[in-house]
Structures are given as C-alpha cells and as structure tokens.
C-alpha cells in the first residue's frame, strides 16, 4: 500500500474524530474550548492531508487504484460531516450554517453522482475533469466551515456560504449540460419506437 493511500485512509478515520470533538464541545457546560480547538486541528490536518496525498500520488508515483477510489470519498465525507454537524446539531456558541447551504452542496454532489451513474449505465464514453467553478465552490465551503469553527460571526459566514452555494449551482448547471450533450451525441436522447 502506498503512502498516499495510507494518508487517504487516515483522512477517512479523522472524519468521525472531528464529529466527536464537535459533539463533545456541545455537551460540555460551560463550553470547554479545548474540544473546539481539537476539532479545528483535526479538520485542518484532514484538509492538509488531502494536498499531501495528492502531491505524493502525482509527483512520487504513489497513485493506486484504491487511492483513486478512496480519495474523493474521503474528501466528500469530510465536507458532508462538517456541513451536517455544523448545521443540524445545536452547538451552543457556534453560529450554525443556514440549512440551505448544506442542502445545496449535498444536493449538487448527489445530482452529479446520479448523472455519472446514468452515463455509465448507457456506456457513454466520458472524461472526468473537475471544472474550476467546482473547485472554487469547495474553497469557499472550506472557508465557511472555518468561519463557523473560528467564530468569525454571522455576516462573514453567510457571505462565504452564499459564494460557495453560488459557485456550486453554476458548477451543477455546467455539468448537467455536459452530461446531456454526451447523452445526445451518443443517441440516447432521441425518440425510439417501443416494440
């Protein structure tokens, strides 16, 4: 097993650790800030590990089929866990996300996954390349999570949420159009006679 894959697995393990620290912070009365700082540390470590395993895979020939499968799963689990935890669980002094923010981000990824499955079902040849709008959306989403964890206040959090959600919606429209074009070029959108 390559080091890049080991780091990806570590990131998967850090997801429940992050959630546990946030819930523990909420359960302490008065709030013990050490748990919030621990959650911040775990989230930052997991985020940095994404860059490290990507670097190892690309520049040190550490890529593997398992790593290629687990890496996007680990990324999405970390984001989803943070979004859901910081949105649905009351966290005392932490300002929660507006519910529309995780709804847009998670729905976007569910729709893209569904589209990918449809294209695979019809055996449509495709090349998966992330669009820059999706990357920008992820950056703003990570910044919004940081804004909540560092207690930057509602205005900053809402602004980052709006930017993250806006780029997510633009990214979704672009990917849906690309998927429909691929289906059209492969002939799967034309009417067929039913026998």
Q: Can you describe what's shown?
A:
It contains 6 helices and no strands. It has 195 residues and is mostly helical. Helix 1 (3-27) runs parallel beside helix 3 (65-88), helix 3 (65-88) packs across helix 5 (132-149) and helix 4 (100-121) packs parallel to helix 6 (154-185). The longest helix is centred in the last third of the chain and has 32 residues, at 154-185. 27% of the residues are buried.
Question: What labels would you give this structure?
Answer:
195 residues; globular; single chain; mainly alpha
Query: Low-confidence stretches at least 5 residues in length (pLDDT < 50)?
Result: none
Major β-sheet, in short? none
Oligomer: single chain
Elements, N to C (H/E): HHHHHH
- Mean of pLDDT: 87
Class inferred from helices and paired strands: mainly alpha
The total count of strands amounts to: 0
């Amino acid at each position: 097993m390559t080091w890049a894959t080991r780091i990806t697995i570590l990131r998967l393990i850090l997801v429940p650790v992050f959630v546990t620290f946030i819930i523990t912070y909420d359960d302490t009365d008065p709030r013990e800030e050490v748990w919030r700082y621990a959650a911040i540390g775990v989230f930052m470590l997991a985020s940095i590990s994404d860059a490290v395993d990507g670097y190892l895979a690309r520049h040190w020939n550490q890529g593997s089929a398992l790593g290629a499968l687990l890496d996007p799963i680990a990324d999405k689990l970390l984001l989803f866990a943070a979004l859901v935890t910081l949105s649905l669980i009351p966290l005392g002094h932490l300002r929660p996300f507006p519910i529309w923010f995780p709804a847009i981000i998670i729905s976007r990824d569910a729709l893209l996954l569904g589209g990918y499955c449809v294209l695979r079902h019809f055996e449509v040849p495709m090349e998966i390349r992330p669009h820059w709008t999706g990357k920008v959306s992820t950056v703003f989403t990570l910044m919004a999570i940081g804004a909540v964890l560092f207690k930057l206040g509602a205005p900053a959090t809402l602004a980052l949420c709006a930017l993250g959600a806006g780029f997510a919606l633009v990214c979704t429209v672009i990917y849906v159009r690309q998927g429909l074009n691929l289906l059209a070029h492969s002939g799967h959108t034309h009417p067929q006679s039913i026998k």
